[in-house]
Amino acid sequence: MDLIVTIVRHGNTFDADQAPRRIGARTDLPLVASGLGQVQALGRSFAEQGMIFDRALAAPLQRTRATIDAILASQPRAPVVESADWLTEIDHGPDEGRIDSDVVARIGHDALVAWDREARAPDGWIVDSDRRIAGWQGLWKTGRGHVLIVTSNGAARFALLSDERLRGQASALPSLKLRTGAYGSIARARGELRLVAWDQRP
Protein backbone atom coordinates (compact mmCIF):
# COMPACT_ATOMS: atom_id res chain seq x y z
CA MET A 1 0.00 0.00 0.00
CA ASP A 2 1.32 3.45 -0.89
CA LEU A 3 -1.45 5.41 0.85
CA ILE A 4 -3.48 4.83 4.00
CA VAL A 5 -5.99 7.45 5.11
CA THR A 6 -7.40 7.25 8.62
CA ILE A 7 -10.57 9.38 8.85
CA VAL A 8 -11.72 10.38 12.35
CA ARG A 9 -14.90 12.11 13.41
CA HIS A 10 -14.38 14.55 16.27
CA GLY A 11 -15.40 13.59 19.80
CA ASN A 12 -18.59 14.42 21.70
CA THR A 13 -19.72 18.03 21.90
CA PHE A 14 -22.72 17.27 24.14
CA ASP A 15 -22.88 15.69 27.58
CA ALA A 16 -25.01 12.60 28.18
CA ASP A 17 -27.72 14.67 29.90
CA GLN A 18 -27.97 17.09 26.97
CA ALA A 19 -30.15 16.61 23.91
CA PRO A 20 -27.83 16.51 20.85
CA ARG A 21 -28.50 19.19 18.27
CA ARG A 22 -27.66 19.52 14.58
CA ILE A 23 -24.43 21.45 14.76
CA GLY A 24 -22.51 22.43 11.65
CA ALA A 25 -20.02 24.97 10.35
CA ARG A 26 -21.76 27.97 11.92
CA THR A 27 -21.50 26.67 15.50
CA ASP A 28 -17.97 26.25 16.86
CA LEU A 29 -18.41 24.05 19.94
CA PRO A 30 -15.57 22.63 22.04
CA LEU A 31 -15.34 18.99 23.07
CA VAL A 32 -16.99 18.04 26.36
CA ALA A 33 -15.17 15.82 28.88
CA SER A 34 -16.51 12.59 27.36
CA GLY A 35 -15.39 13.76 23.91
CA LEU A 36 -11.88 14.42 25.15
CA GLY A 37 -11.87 10.92 26.63
CA GLN A 38 -12.95 9.48 23.28
CA VAL A 39 -10.16 11.12 21.32
CA GLN A 40 -7.49 10.34 23.90
CA ALA A 41 -8.57 6.69 23.62
CA LEU A 42 -8.18 6.93 19.84
CA GLY A 43 -4.68 8.33 20.21
CA ARG A 44 -3.68 5.52 22.57
CA SER A 45 -5.23 2.87 20.31
CA PHE A 46 -3.50 4.16 17.19
CA ALA A 47 -0.16 4.29 19.02
CA GLU A 48 -0.61 0.74 20.35
CA GLN A 49 -1.28 -0.45 16.81
CA GLY A 50 1.98 1.15 15.70
CA MET A 51 0.24 3.68 13.47
CA ILE A 52 2.59 6.55 12.57
CA PHE A 53 1.10 9.47 10.68
CA ASP A 54 3.11 11.23 7.98
CA ARG A 55 0.57 13.98 7.40
CA ALA A 56 -2.37 15.43 9.35
CA LEU A 57 -5.33 17.45 8.06
CA ALA A 58 -8.26 18.87 10.00
CA ALA A 59 -11.25 21.09 9.56
CA PRO A 60 -10.72 24.55 11.17
CA LEU A 61 -13.09 24.24 14.16
CA GLN A 62 -12.45 23.82 17.90
CA ARG A 63 -13.81 20.29 18.07
CA THR A 64 -11.78 19.00 15.14
CA ARG A 65 -8.58 20.77 16.24
CA ALA A 66 -8.88 19.47 19.81
CA THR A 67 -9.47 15.97 18.43
CA ILE A 68 -6.45 15.92 16.15
CA ASP A 69 -4.22 17.50 18.83
CA ALA A 70 -5.19 14.77 21.33
CA ILE A 71 -4.51 12.01 18.80
CA LEU A 72 -1.16 13.45 17.75
CA ALA A 73 -0.10 13.82 21.40
CA SER A 74 0.42 10.03 21.37
CA GLN A 75 2.65 10.16 18.29
CA PRO A 76 6.45 10.06 18.65
CA ARG A 77 6.94 12.55 15.79
CA ALA A 78 3.70 14.38 15.11
CA PRO A 79 3.33 16.15 11.75
CA VAL A 80 2.22 19.77 11.58
CA VAL A 81 -1.57 19.98 11.24
CA GLU A 82 -2.78 21.37 7.92
CA SER A 83 -6.14 23.12 7.60
CA ALA A 84 -8.43 22.00 4.78
CA ASP A 85 -11.65 23.93 4.19
CA TRP A 86 -13.24 21.07 2.22
CA LEU A 87 -13.30 19.14 5.50
CA THR A 88 -15.34 21.82 7.29
CA GLU A 89 -18.74 20.73 8.56
CA ILE A 90 -21.82 21.25 6.45
CA ASP A 91 -24.31 24.06 7.05
CA HIS A 92 -27.65 22.74 8.34
CA GLY A 93 -29.48 25.85 7.19
CA PRO A 94 -32.80 26.27 9.06
CA ASP A 95 -32.03 23.16 11.14
CA GLU A 96 -28.77 24.46 12.63
CA GLY A 97 -28.92 24.12 16.41
CA ARG A 98 -32.18 22.17 16.44
CA ILE A 99 -32.77 18.77 18.06
CA ASP A 100 -33.57 15.82 15.78
CA SER A 101 -37.27 15.69 16.64
CA ASP A 102 -37.64 19.27 15.40
CA VAL A 103 -35.63 18.48 12.28
CA VAL A 104 -37.80 15.44 11.53
CA ALA A 105 -40.91 17.55 12.03
CA ARG A 106 -39.65 19.95 9.34
CA ILE A 107 -38.19 17.61 6.70
CA GLY A 108 -39.53 14.14 7.56
CA HIS A 109 -37.80 10.93 8.68
CA ASP A 110 -37.15 9.73 5.12
CA ALA A 111 -35.03 12.79 4.36
CA LEU A 112 -32.68 11.97 7.24
CA VAL A 113 -32.48 8.35 6.13
CA ALA A 114 -31.55 9.49 2.60
CA TRP A 115 -28.85 11.72 4.07
CA ASP A 116 -27.32 8.92 6.13
CA ARG A 117 -27.51 6.25 3.43
CA GLU A 118 -26.93 8.26 0.24
CA ALA A 119 -25.59 11.68 1.36
CA ARG A 120 -28.63 13.27 -0.31
CA ALA A 121 -28.91 16.66 1.40
CA PRO A 122 -32.28 17.64 2.90
CA ASP A 123 -33.99 20.78 1.66
CA GLY A 124 -32.28 23.89 2.99
CA TRP A 125 -28.96 22.29 3.96
CA ILE A 126 -25.81 23.67 2.31
CA VAL A 127 -23.52 20.72 1.66
CA ASP A 128 -21.40 21.63 -1.40
CA SER A 129 -20.86 17.97 -2.22
CA ASP A 130 -18.92 18.64 -5.44
CA ARG A 131 -16.21 20.59 -3.59
CA ARG A 132 -15.94 17.91 -0.91
CA ILE A 133 -15.71 15.07 -3.42
CA ALA A 134 -13.05 17.01 -5.34
CA GLY A 135 -11.05 17.38 -2.12
CA TRP A 136 -11.14 13.64 -1.46
CA GLN A 137 -10.29 12.87 -5.08
CA GLY A 138 -7.28 15.16 -4.90
CA LEU A 139 -6.06 13.27 -1.85
CA TRP A 140 -6.53 9.89 -3.56
CA LYS A 141 -4.55 11.14 -6.54
CA THR A 142 -1.58 12.82 -4.82
CA GLY A 143 -1.47 11.49 -1.25
CA ARG A 144 1.36 9.32 0.01
CA GLY A 145 2.14 7.54 3.27
CA HIS A 146 -0.24 7.47 6.23
CA VAL A 147 -2.56 10.48 6.42
CA LEU A 148 -4.68 11.34 9.46
CA ILE A 149 -7.84 13.36 8.80
CA VAL A 150 -10.17 14.75 11.46
CA THR A 151 -13.48 16.11 10.27
CA SER A 152 -17.23 15.89 10.79
CA ASN A 153 -19.82 13.26 10.05
CA GLY A 154 -21.22 15.39 7.24
CA ALA A 155 -17.88 15.76 5.46
CA ALA A 156 -16.43 12.29 6.10
CA ARG A 157 -19.18 10.45 4.23
CA PHE A 158 -18.11 11.99 0.91
CA ALA A 159 -14.87 10.01 1.05
CA LEU A 160 -17.01 6.94 0.36
CA LEU A 161 -18.71 8.62 -2.61
CA SER A 162 -15.59 10.03 -4.25
CA ASP A 163 -14.55 6.88 -6.10
CA GLU A 164 -16.57 4.25 -7.96
CA ARG A 165 -14.83 1.34 -6.23
CA LEU A 166 -15.39 2.87 -2.79
CA ARG A 167 -19.04 3.52 -3.58
CA GLY A 168 -19.51 -0.15 -4.38
CA GLN A 169 -17.86 -1.24 -1.14
CA ALA A 170 -19.79 1.33 0.90
CA SER A 171 -23.09 0.01 -0.46
CA ALA A 172 -22.75 -2.90 1.99
CA LEU A 173 -22.65 -0.52 4.99
CA PRO A 174 -25.86 0.13 6.94
CA SER A 175 -25.06 3.85 6.90
CA LEU A 176 -22.44 6.32 5.67
CA LYS A 177 -22.27 7.86 9.15
CA LEU A 178 -19.28 7.98 11.45
CA ARG A 179 -20.20 8.17 15.14
CA THR A 180 -18.42 10.70 17.34
CA GLY A 181 -14.99 9.40 18.30
CA ALA A 182 -15.09 6.76 15.54
CA TYR A 183 -12.84 6.29 12.54
CA GLY A 184 -12.62 4.70 9.13
CA SER A 185 -9.68 3.65 7.01
CA ILE A 186 -9.15 3.69 3.25
CA ALA A 187 -6.04 2.29 1.55
CA ARG A 188 -4.62 2.69 -1.96
CA ALA A 189 -2.53 -0.03 -3.55
CA ARG A 190 -1.50 -0.13 -7.21
CA GLY A 191 -3.87 2.73 -7.92
CA GLU A 192 -6.99 1.07 -6.48
CA LEU A 193 -8.81 2.21 -3.36
CA ARG A 194 -10.12 -0.17 -0.72
CA LEU A 195 -12.37 0.47 2.26
CA VAL A 196 -10.56 -1.19 5.17
CA ALA A 197 -12.81 -0.14 8.08
CA TRP A 198 -15.66 2.24 8.84
CA ASP A 199 -17.30 3.54 12.01
CA GLN A 200 -14.86 1.79 14.38
CA ARG A 201 -14.21 2.83 17.97
CA PRO A 202 -11.34 1.63 20.17
Provide a descriptive summary of the structure in words:
- The structure is a single chain.
- The protein has a six-stranded mixed sheet with strand order 3-2-4-1-5-6.
- The chain has one domain (3-200): Rossmann fold, CATH 3.40.50.
- The relative contact order is 0.22.
- Helix 2 links the parallel strand 2 and strand 3 (81-83).
- It has seven helices and six strands.
- Helix 1 (33-48) packs parallel to helix 2 (62-72).
- It has helices at 33-48, 62-72, 100-107, 109-118, 129-142, 153-156, 164-170; strands spanning 3-9, 55-58, 81-83, 145-151, 183-189, 192-200.
- It is an alpha/beta fold and 202 residues long.
- The mean pLDDT is 96.
- The protein is globular and about 45 Å long.
List the helices and strands and how they pair.
Layout: E1 3-9, H1 33-48, E2 55-58, H2 62-72, E3 81-83, H3 100-107, H4 109-118, H5 129-142, E4 145-151, H6 153-156, H7 164-170, E5 183-189, E6 192-200
Parallel strand pairs: 1-4, 2-3, 2-4
Antiparallel strand pairs: 1-5, 5-6
Helix pairs in contact: 1-2
